[in-house]
Amino acid sequence: MSTIWPTGLHSIGGALVRCHLLVWERSAVLIDTGLCLAPYRLRKLMSRLALKPTALRAILLTHGHLDHTGGLAEIKAWSGAPVFAHPAEQAHIDGTFSYHGAARVGGAIEAMGRTLLGYHPVKIDTPVRDGDELPFWGGLRVVHLPGHTAGHCGFFSARENVLFSGDLFASYAFSAHLSPAIFTSQPALLPASVARVRALNPAGLVPNHYDRPDTALHLRRFDQVTC
Which domain holds residue 120? Predict the structure, then answer.
């Protein structure tokens, strides 16, 4: 195990967000699908790794916001991989979720983005719940971390002692912060999700918004954020 960046973990950069390809043996699983160039970069990466599209065994979604599902339809059509996500995220994936308060701003931005990108929603194939054990990358446990959205989930690798924390927080040298109000539909639930991650006590974190591939660094930054 490396607390810097685990073997077999590949970051795929794109507009605004990163998604992650987890590779083991001759198989792979994708956590989130990014925006715009992410599907192209995924195909290029898998080609470089000599992995066929069918090697992608699943697409795991931390949540259904556009920057995490923008490439979903294209990647699913290309690979045939089933989509795993919390059922509460289907409304976000479909673009039908009704936002309230400050989050209406984020909802309006998403609606504009779906129109500009010609977005196509996709149905969740396998709903996941808190505590589910998924047979990918040596085992990934679903950790329900609501707040950013009602069905927002992380994925914990016990083998690597690393948590993929989705959009619970963003980790940059200039700012480490919890999900901003305009992108948070269940703000009252954030403190409990932060507390849950701290109780889990992983050796490292992999968020979706960050500057450097260093899981221990992201954990240190997370430890400094407050609700």
Answer: 9-224
